[in-house]
Write a structure and sequence with these properties.
Length: 90
């Protein structure tokens, strides 16, 4: 999928999310944004919380990596150990 076309209003020139889609656009564009961010993780690789935050910080500029990490987990784009010691993408 070409996320840059679908998310063109939400990405800066470097392909980073510049804002989180509003509640009005919540369904479609928030899910696309999460799918876009999830595509930055390698399948089958375990990441620490710090590594997840680093990857997220590289792909957005609005400064809320904790919200993005939580949304990715809650929507099933990434998984984590109960204690938060490891994250991974299916």
């Amino acid at each position: 999928m070409d996320y840059k076309i679908e998310l063109k209003n939400y990405l800066d020139e470097e392909g980073r999310l510049k804002e989180w889609p509003s509640k009005r656009n919540k369904g479609k564009f928030q899910l696309l944004a999460l799918e876009y961010l999830a595509s930055k993780f390698e399948t089958g690789v375990n990441y620490t919380e710090k590594e997840v935050n680093t990857i997220l910080q590289q792909h957005h500029i609005f400064g809320d990596h904790a919200m993005l990490r939580r949304e990715l987990f809650e929507k099933g784009f990434i998984n984590r150990e109960r204690d938060g010691s490891a994250y991974w993408c299916n």
